[in-house]
Amino acid sequence: MQIIHTISELRELVTAGKQTGKVIGFVPTMGNLHQGHLQLVKMALSTSDIVICSIFVNPLQFGEGEDFEQYPRTLEADAKKLQQAGCDIIFAPAVDEMYPESDGGGRDQSQVSVPGISDILEGASRPGHFTGVATIVAKLFNMVQPDKAVFGAKDYQQLQVIQRFVRELCFPVEILSHPIVRENNGLAMSSRNGYLSESQKQQAAALYKTLQGLKKQLQTGAYSFKNNSLKSYAGIEQQAIEDLNAQGFMTDYLTIRSTDLMPPTEKDKHLVILVAAYLGKTRLLDNIQLSI
Length: 292
Ligand code: PAF
What we know:
Layout lengths: L1 E3 L2 H13 L4 E6 L5 H13 L2 E6 L19 H11 L3 E3 L3 H4 L23 H4 L3 H16 L3 E5 L3 H13 L5 E5 L19 H22 L11 H16 L3 E9 L11 E10 L2 E10 L1
Parallel strand pairs: 1-4, 2-3, 2-5, 3-4, 5-6
Antiparallel strand pairs: 7-8, 8-9
Helix pairs in contact: 6-7, 8-9
This protein binds pantoate.
C-alpha cells in the first residue's frame, strides 16, 4: 500500500492503472476509520482492481461552531487498518493541496451546489454542509477518476446529493451504496461515536430501536394512506420525537420520507425514516428504509 499526499503523485498512479485497463474503486473518507469504513473498502475491493481511499477532513463541509478542529486526525492508525483491509493507495492531502487558492480556509470560488435536496433536513440544520460535501467529492472524483465510488447509507441525504450531481453533471463514475454497519446494540457506526461516553453509547441504541418500531408500525398498515391521512404520519413522527427526547436525546428531526426525500404520497411504496438527534453535544444520524 502506498500513502501519497499530492495530486501529481495520485495522477501518476491513476494514469498507470488506467493504461493497463484496471478498474479503479474509490472510498472517500475523513479518516478516524471504523469497521463501517472498512466494509466500504471491502465492497470496493470486490468490484475493482485498484482501491484508493482518501483521508481528508474537509473544512468546507463544517459550519461555524462545528467540530472541524476537534475532528480526530489518526492517519497512522487509519493506514494500518487500510493496509490490513487490502487498500492499495491512501490519498491524504493537506488542506492547501485541496484548496490552493483560498488560504487554508477551503473557500475557493468554484463550488458544486445541489439546491433543493441540499437545503432540507441535514442541510436546513447545517447550511452549506452539502455544498462542502459535493464540492470536495467532485474535486476528488476529478483527481482519482474512479470507475466506482462507495459511500455508506448512514449518510442517506449525502448519498442522494452525490448521486444527483453525478447524474446531472455527467461524472463517469458508478456510485455504490453500502448498507449501514451497526454495533451489536444497533448503534450505526460513525466516527463521531468516539465523542460518546460508554453509557451514552448504550443510550444511543434507542435511535435504531425507535426506527425499527416505526417501521413495524408503518408496515402493519394502520398508518397507510388508505386508512388514514398524511396527518397520521405527523402523529407518529411527533410521538417518536417525544419518546426520544424523554430518553435524553434532543431530536432535531425525525421524518418519514419517500426515498428521494420528499414528503411521501399515496403512491410511494418505498420509504425512508430519517433521524438526527443530539446526545449531549454529539449529533447522531440514522435511517431505515422500508417498503409498505
Ligand atoms: O462521509 C464523509 O466522510 C464525508 O462527507 C466525505 C464523503 C468523505 C466528504 O468529505
